[in-house]
Amino acid sequence: MFFKILLGIDVAVAVVVLYFFEVGLNDGSISSFNMYLWLEMLSCVAAVLIGGLTLSSYGHPRLAKAVLMLLAVPGVSYVLFFAILIIANPRWN
Predict the structure, then answer these.
(1) 65 neighbors 6 (Cβ within 8 angstroms)
(2) Average pLDDT of the chain?
(3) Which of 4, 2, 6, 5 is nearest to 67 (CA)?
(4) In the prediction, which pLDDT does 11 show?
(5) What per-residue string of b and e applies to 34-48 under the rule 16 or more CB within 10 Å gives b?
(6) pTM of the model
(7) pLDDT for 90
């Protein structure tokens, strides 16, 4: 069950990364200057997803969860940070 939750979070993060990549391609902000950085980021996201699924299918559930947590923990932390900012409405002055 925990593996499926982590996998769902990782897929959501991957969809967000692909969305920003597509938007950047359409508006021209992704060019040959920074294409290498984007391809590296996309390949790391894909490596985490494929690595987690592969390790799980080969019978290494703990290691698969650890690999999936590499992407899920920062994603959840980012969402929680902005949720706290929206709910708390802090004063920035």
Answers:
(1) yes
(2) 93
(3) 6
(4) 95
(5) eeeebeeeeeebeeb
(6) 0.85
(7) 84
Token pair of 46, please?
């894909």
The rounded distance, in Å, linking the Cα atoms of 32 and 52 is 31
DSSP 8-state class, residue 32: T
**CA 18, CA 39: separation in Å to the nearest integer?**
11
Residue 81 near residue 88 (C-beta atoms within 8 A):
no
The token duo for 1 is: 């069950």
Which helix or strand (DSSP H or E) is residue 53 part of?
A: helix 35-57
Location of structure tokens 């984007």: 38
Residue 63: both structure tokens together: 């290691």
CA separation for the pair 25, 39 (Å, rounded): 12
pLDDT at 10: 95
